[in-house]
């Protein structure tokens, strides 16, 4: 048995130096392949007449209960609401772009984690997912694809890898790091 454990450890110890570059690269690829277009499409639905004029739907998506309470009249909202909508919309464009490029990867992934947490809070409490078992889902069940608990946990794991490991060897971060080391 000791021989098998030694063989196992020797085989996998040789893979250990590859763990960070492989995990970082795969995490970026997973984010870009599955969530980049999702977030950009979502951001596009929030654009009104330019980047500084969010659409009515942007307010309804981000502040659903507040919009219902004011009869969908955005003039009854304050500047803070507009600021949150604009920053949220820009974040849906900028943060995924940074992750695609691998630029400021750790900070962009951390920003996306914050975004996903706020998005989830809004979905659960603002859009009523708390009362929709098929949307909310449950962990440790046989159904792996609920939009909130199951999918968002996987998103957070991918983003957590990027926070901890960075953008990998094929990122702008790595290119800048190599240039700084050589110059």
TrEMBL record:
<keyword id="KW-1133">Transmembrane helix</keyword>
<feature type="transmembrane region" description="Helical">
    <location>
        <begin position="153"/>
        <end position="176"/>
    </location>
</feature>
<keyword id="KW-0472">Membrane</keyword>
<feature type="transmembrane region" description="Helical">
    <location>
        <begin position="93"/>
        <end position="118"/>
    </location>
</feature>
<dbReference type="Pfam" id="PF07681">
    <property type="entry name" value="DoxX"/>
</dbReference>
<keyword id="KW-0812">Transmembrane</keyword>
<protein>
    <submittedName>
        <fullName>Putative oxidoreductase</fullName>
    </submittedName>
</protein>
<dbReference type="InterPro" id="IPR032808">
    <property type="entry name" value="DoxX"/>
</dbReference>
<feature type="transmembrane region" description="Helical">
    <location>
        <begin position="22"/>
        <end position="41"/>
    </location>
</feature>
<dbReference type="GO" id="GO:0016020">
    <property type="term" value="C:membrane"/>
</dbReference>
